[in-house]
Amino acid sequence: MTQLERLLTALGKANVEFIIVGGVAARAHGSSRLTDDLDVVYARSPGNLARLVDALASLRPYLRGAPAGLPFEWSVTTIRAGLNFTLTTTAGAIDLLGEITGGGTYDDLASHTLPVTLFGREVLLLDLPALIRVKRAAGRPKDLEVIAELEVIEEESRRHQ
Amino acid sequence: MYDITRVNELLRQIREGAALSQREFASAAGTSQSAVANLEQGLANPTVETLARLLRAAGYAMVVDAIPLPGTDRVVERYKVDVDRTLIRENLKKSVNERVRSLAEWQAAGAELERAARTAKRRK
Predict the structure, then answer these.
(1) The total number of structural domains that make up chain A
(2) Closest CA relative to residue A104, chosen from A86, A88, A83, A85
(3) What angle, 0 to 180 degrees and rounded to 10, lies between the N-to-C axes of helices B33-40 and B7-17?
(4) Quick check: is B91 in a domain?
(5) What residues make up the domain containing B89?
(6) What is the pTM of this model?
(7) Residue B78 included in any domain
(8) How many domains does one find in chain B?
(9) DSSP state of B21
(10) Do A4 and B79 touch (CB under 8 A)?
């Protein structure tokens, strides 16, 4: 099982409410770019925070880039106190985003998602127009190439409809 | 700035602004009064050269510019030129699951390459 499958399976088995965004979402829409992490926007309801903690606990999540030995407790208290977490786990890197620029929270994005089946489980994927909007709102120079490719995917998808 | 589809209004406005009759305007531009009348009524479309001559006759220089439409990002449009559409078309033939599975496989391959490189460096 690849690391990406392990992460998505862990989240899916625990019934975590999340939306795939970022590079994996772009890939799902047809991008040829590679990415090293999984970005998800997660719902911040108390129940979902608990499910999220349970889902990833066995994968030993830790703050990515933090000095070794820095105390980090993977718990509902920790997640509630923060919003966005860039983590490393035994199944690879995952970014847990409570809110994203240009997109908002899980509830804001929920109506801009597509249900897709990945590795045998149904998950929510940010739809292509919303993904482009979010990338534009981020305003980073490195995203210009990504935006260009996503818009080409939109054009090519329309051509083949 | 004028929308090129309304060139007949442009001609009438600049002619009137220059206080020229259609006959005077036509004479200065080296054309006929009837031609000017047709152009101003939108019954004919001038060539770019004719339009430039008419504008000059009224004391204007013509500048042609391509303005991006609202919502078009010129920088992104430039990046689009370099996007490999053949790869995109191949990816669009696959299911969503297939696309993400291939990403997972590439990630695994990348991890293996890193391991091999680390091993090779240790042996040196």
Answers:
(1) 1
(2) A83
(3) 120
(4) yes
(5) 74-123
(6) 0.72
(7) yes
(8) 2
(9) -
(10) no
The verdict on B8 and B33 lying in the same domain is yes
Whether A118 contacts chain B with CB within 8 A: yes
Q: What is the distance in angstroms between the Cα of A80 and the nearest Cα belonging to chain B? A: 30
Which ipTM score applies to this complex? 0.83
> What pLDDT digit, counting tens, does each position of B77-116 carry?
889 999 999 999 999 999 999 999 999 888 888 888 888 9
What residue in B sits closest to A135 (Cα-Cα)?
A: B76
Structure token pair of residue B34: 């009837």
Token pair 């001038």 in the structure block, residue: B46
If asked whether residues B53 and B78 sit together in one domain, one would say no
* CATH code at position B50: 1.10.260.40
Q: Is residue B30 part of a domain?
A: yes
Length in residues, chain B: 124
Chain B residues touching A149 at Cβ < 8 A: 80, 83, 88
**Residues of B with Cβ-Cβ distance to A147 under 8 angstroms:** 73, 76, 79
Chain A positions touching B98 (Cβ under 8 A) are none
Task: Tell me the three-class secondary structure of A27-78, residue by residue.
Answer: HHHCCCCCCCEEEEEECCCHHHHHHHHHHHHCCCCEECCCCCCCCCCCCHHH
Measured between CB atoms, which of A27, A147, A160 is closest to B100? A27
Report the length, in residues, of chain A: 161
